[in-house]
Amino acid sequence: MTDLPTFHTKRLVLRPRAMADLNACLAMDRDTEVTRFVAGPWDDPARHAAFVRERIAADFGRGLGYWSVFDRHEPHRFLGWVLLIPRDGSGPDIEIGWRFIRQAWGRGFATEATLPVVAYAFVALGLERIVADIAVGNAGSMKVARKIGMRAAVHEAGPDVLFVMTRADYARPGRGRG
After folding, report:
1. Residue 100 forms beta bridges with which residues?
2. What is the layout of strands, in order, in the sheet containing 65-71?
3. What's the first-to-final CA gap in the chain, in angstroms?
4. How far apart are CA 80 and CA 28, in angstroms?
5. Rounded to whole angstroms, how far apart are CA atoms 159 and 155?
6. What string of DSSP letters covers 143-157?
7. Span 108-125, mean pLDDT?
8. What is the Cα–Cα distance from 167 to 119, expressed in whole angstroms?
9. How far is residue 161's CA from residue 146's CA, in Å, rounded to a whole number?
10. 94: phi > 0 → left, psi -120 to 50 → alpha, else beta; which?
11. What is the pLDDT of residues 5-42, one digit of tens each?
């Protein structure tokens, strides 16, 4: 696992995801509404646990990985995660993604948590662009993508819409960054 920074926002703490977060991640994924738009081994407890353990331990490259998101005022309250990893595991595109417990939905946490990761991607890592694959029916995630400044670029054959943000998009004056 690479060294990732910790981020603090007004309401949240994002820290590199660790094995200590395993049970919270598994519990979140067992909520069928949370994983409704995401393919995965959610119905097979052993495969599910192995999948999440593998993701926690993986080295995605310099400065890339997952951040666990916690309530700043209740530091042990797991809310979800944000990722910045190679798309489809191999790149070359770098994907930003997020998943939150249902109790955190509709409160702006996903937007608040992704903004420092977006800044990190462009400023600290110097990436030229980031992408997000979002299932067509996932209106909540599409809303987050738009709020952080991404735009729908391609409607691919399949169940996803590709959202994109370039470094130029990020630097554009007046772009809503929080």
Report:
1. 80
2. 7-8, 12-16, 65-71, 78-86, 94-100, 129-135, 160-166, 151-155
3. 29
4. 8
5. 9
6. HHHHHTT-EEEEE-S
7. 97
8. 10
9. 12
10. beta
11. 999 999 999 999 999 999 999 999 999 999 999 999 99
Residue pointed to by tokens 């331990």: 57
Closest CA relative to residue 149, chosen from 104, 125, 119, 124: 119
pLDDT at 1: 45
| pLDDT confidence of residue 154 | 67
Q: Which two tokens stand for residue 165?
A: 């943000």
Report, at the CATH architecture level, how domain 7-171 is classified. Answer: 3-Layer(aba) Sandwich (3.40)
Backbone torsions φ then ψ of 87, nearest 5 degrees: -60, 135
**CA 127 – CA 96 distance, rounded (Å):** 12
Tokens of 4: 């990732």
The whole-model pTM stands at 0.92
Q: Which residues pair with 82 in a beta bridge?
A: 67, 98
Q: How confident is the model at residue 91 (pLDDT cuts 50, 70, 90)?
A: confident
* Alpha helices (H) in the chain, listed in sequence order: 22-29, 45-57, 109-119, 139-147, 167-171
Please name the residue that has the structure tokens 């049970």: 23
SS3 114: helix
pLDDT digits (tens, 9 = 90+) for 117-147: 999 999 999 999 999 999 989 999 999 999 9
Closest CA to 98 of 119, 76, 73, 117: 117
